[in-house]
Amino acid sequence: MGVELTVLPYPYDALAPFIGKQTMEIHHGRHHKKYVTTTNDMIKGTDMEGDDVISIVKKSFGSNQGLFNNAAQSFNHDFYWKCMKPGGGGKPTGKLAQLIEKDFGGYDNFRKEFVTKALTAFGSGWAWLVQTPTGLKVTNTIGANTPLTDADTVPLLTVDVWEHAYYLDYQNMRNTYVDTFMDNLVDWDAVAARLQ
Question: Which of 46, 81, 113, 118 has the lowest tally of Cβ within 10 angstroms?
Answer without folding.
Answer: 46
